[in-house]
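Same chain as my last thread, 248 residues:
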Amino acid sequence: MDNPLHPFELHELIPISLFGFDISINKAVVMMWVVVGLAAWLMIAAASAKRLVPTKLQSLAEMLVEFVRGIILDTMGKDGMRFFPLVATLFLFILFCNLLGLIPGSYTVTSQIVVTAAFALGVYMLSLVLGFLLHGVKFLGILVPPGTPGWLLPLMVPIEMISQLARPISLAVRLFANMTAGHVILGVLFGLAVAGGLLIGWLPFAFTIAMNGLEVGIAFIQAYIFTVLSCVYLGDAMHLHGHEGHAH
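reply #2:
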């Protein structure tokens, strides 16, 4: 049976070096271009239709937009709509990466920790910058949970600091681990189906089909979780434990 991690290996398609940095084109880079192109085509084609009775494409785009809008309003309130372009781009990119990665022969970009870590770190750093811009040094109050008695501060502040530092790590690892684990299981089951032949291979093949259906759901769920948590971090920076409140 082939190594189940073999599909995650990246090999240079077009070697490129710039100022000593390796920026070679590989399968992951090509898939990113495909994802960006398809997502952009979907939204542009849907926006150009603008029919009173929406087409299927227009309905799909409107559902995605309303879905992202609902996430923002639920987590950040109306003030958070200023981040709609960022959140929508993040959600669509991750969703398309996850779904297109299920096509045999393609590549799941979100199975690379460097990709998920870049997104997670970017969102977290943005939340820190936003928090200090809006609240100044008062933003450090995010390290003190509401209602914490003064004598507990020496204990709670270090714990909250660790919790804050764990946010981008958990955000990146969750998406990377889920997408990698799902594809490894699919690879193992498919390998068993091939090795088992017609006599007993049908059983792992049936599980492969079932797992593929499950992976479609996981692709949506992981894109949703990443987007929701990103909005929560930005919302925390805007509202500081919700002290200022936000209206939907």
